[in-house]
Structures are given as structure tokens and as C-alpha cells.
Amino acid sequence: MTIKIGDTLPEGSLAEFIEVESEGCSLGPNTFKVADLTKGKTIAIFGLPGAYTPTCSAKHVPGYVALAADLKAKGVDEIWCISVNDAFVMGAWGRDQKSTGIVRMMADGNADFSKALGLDADFSKFGMGTRSQRYSLLAVDGVVKQLNIEEGGKFEVSNAETLLAQLG
């Protein structure tokens, strides 16, 4: 079943490559529970099929990086990019996209969270296995308030501009 507006985000964990060791976070991949990270916060989340893929690298991530300050001015505490890649790849891609400190590059290595959302997709015909559909959502205290799911192969509603406009 696909998540919908009004639903609580499913239980799950995501991994993030931490560049600088800090209190509670070691250098390298760190795993976080989604429920802990979303508690009391407004999170803009966008999911996409894969790191370094054309639309994701040329449009999706750069749009959220460019509009991050505008999203935060509208009450967004954090912006997450979720992809079915490992934390090492997501960390490297984040450096490449100059998103460090702006967009959290969250790895859903086995697609468990994407499956729990009902937003997984079969990309086997491209040699990529199970991936995430392209989407964006706004979660407030873990509850979905906005949800934009792309039709296969499209990039029209999950962009940063659409989510920003939905914030009013």
C-alpha cells in the first residue's frame, strides 16, 4: 500500500555518511531511525531512483540545494534526499552535488524504507534492481502533509519548486 497524506511515516532506518565526527556521530556511515529524526520537525523529503543518474544529478538534487534557504524560510527544518544506494555512494554524491550541510543524503541501501512507503520500483530492465520511485513529501512530526509522486519516467511534480509552492 502506498503512503498517503495524513499517514505517519513507516518505521525504518536510513544511513548517512558523516564527513566530520561529532557528538553522537562517528566518521563514516551512521544509521538513524526515521521516527527519531522526524520527531518535532518539519522535513522535506525527496526520493529518487539513483545517485549519479542523469535527471537526479542534473535537476532533482540541484533544485533542492538551490531552494534550500527558501524552504527553510517556510518552516522546513531539514531536507532529505533518499535513494536506494549505500551510504558511501550517497556521501560521495553529496560532495559532488555540493549538498553537504544543505541536503542530507540518506541511503536506503536495501530499499526497505522505500518498500515500507510503497514507493519502490523495479528498475531491473536497466540493470538497477529495486529502486525508489521519484517523489517528494513534507512530513511534520512524522506525518505526511504533502505528497507528490511522479508518473514513471517523469520529473514534473517532485521538484523543489512544487514543494515550495505547496508551503504557501
TrEMBL record:
User: What top-level branch of life does the organism fall under?
Assistant: Bacteria
Keyword terms: Antioxidant, Oxidoreductase, Peroxidase, Redox-active center
- Kindly list the biological process annotations in GO that this record carries: cell redox homeostasis; cellular response to oxidative stress; hydrogen peroxide catabolic process
Which Gene3D superfamilies does the record cross-reference, listed alphabetically? Answer: Glutaredoxin
SUPFAM superfamilies named among the record's database cross-references: Thioredoxin-like (SSF52833)
Cell cycle as a keyword of this entry, yes or no, is no
Give start and end of each Thioredoxin domain: 3-168
Q: What class of enzyme is it?
A: oxidoreductase
Q: Which terms does the record give in the GO molecular function aspect?
A: thioredoxin peroxidase activity
Catalytic residues, per the record, are C56 (cysteine sulfenic acid (-soh) intermediate)
Swiss-Prot/TrEMBL catalytic activity:
a hydroperoxide + 2 glutathione = an alcohol + glutathione disulfide + H2O
Q: Cite a GO CC annotation.
A: cytoplasm
Cite a single Pfam family from the UniProt record. Answer: Redoxin
- EC number of the protein: 1.11.1.27
Q: Which family does it belong to?
A: Belongs to the peroxiredoxin family. Prx5 subfamily.
Free-text function comment from the UniProt entry: Thiol-specific peroxidase that catalyzes the reduction of hydrogen peroxide and organic hydroperoxides to water and alcohols, respectively. Plays a role in cell protection against oxidative stress by detoxifying peroxides.
Q: What is this protein called?
A: Glutathione-dependent peroxiredoxin
Query: Can you name the source organism?
Result: Undibacterium pigrum
